[in-house]
Design a protein that fits this description.
By secondary structure, the chain is of the alpha/beta class. The protein contains seven helices and seven strands.
Length: 215
């Protein structure tokens, strides 16, 4: 059985992405900060007949994040897919951001993503294949679409660049890196329902035509 690790599990996108892969015979490992929430999520997956596990991880704490991945690697023979779905969503205009605010956002939006990737890359190289998928958005493609979310725009743009570099760097190792850019507010209309967006992660994983999908 293949294994997917979803960093940033939750009732929104994280669990819907995980369920899409679970429906295609993946074992699901959910990562989030709160053990109580993870227990609930795992129970919901198991009630549907899926193989699911939880690992507590704080993406702003590199020791916590590293430990969580070490636990997963020790427990399972393979990690076939990583989805990094964590984001720091607080608003703030570019002219008013403090240095501390920018650093805190960047730790969640970009550093946690890169650290997560570096933890699974050696495993995937040894396997000879794998996929690393990230959640991007309108912010990173059109920075002034929601100008009051300046950190999110800057960080998603940086994340998009990171994905492009990983995509090229890891291709010869059989590892695909890609990003789904969600071009609207999740749940705001029929198109952007979480279950429909989750389909795009599966499409990106299976098609691998380009490093990104904008949806």
């Amino acid at each position: 059985m293949k294994t997917i690790v979803v960093v940033g599990a939750g009732k929104g996108m994280g669990n819907h992405i995980a369920e899409k892969f679970a429906q295609n015979d993946f074992r699901v490992v959910l990562m989030a900060r709160r053990a109580e929430a993870l227990d609930e999520y795992v129970g919901e997956f198991e009630a549907k007949g899926f193989d699911a596990y939880g690992e507590v991880a704080d993406v702003t704490d590199m020791e916590s994040l590293t430990k969580a991945f070490d636990n997963v690697i020790a427990k399972f023979d393979s990690i076939d897919v990583l989805v990094y779905n964590a984001a720091h969503m607080d608003a703030g205009n570019a002219s008013k951001l403090t240095a501390d605010e920018m650093v805190e956002h960047f730790k969640t939006d970009v550093v946690g993503a890169q650290v997560s990737a570096t933890k699974v890359i050696p495993v995937m190289k040894e396997q000879g294949e794998g996929a690393i998928l990230f959640t991007g958005g309108l912010f990173g493609v059109h920075p002034n679409a929601f100008y009051e979310f300046a950190c999110m725009s800057m960080d998603k743009a940086a994340l998009r660049q990171l994905v492009q570099m990983l995509n090229q760097e890891l291709a010869d190792d059989g590892i695909f890196a890609g990003i789904v850019n969600i071009m609207g507010v999740v749940g705001s209309d029929d198109v952007h329902q979480p279950s429909k967006i989750a389909e795009k992660y599966w499409e990106l994983y299976t098609s691998r035509k380009d490093f990104e999908i904008c949806y």
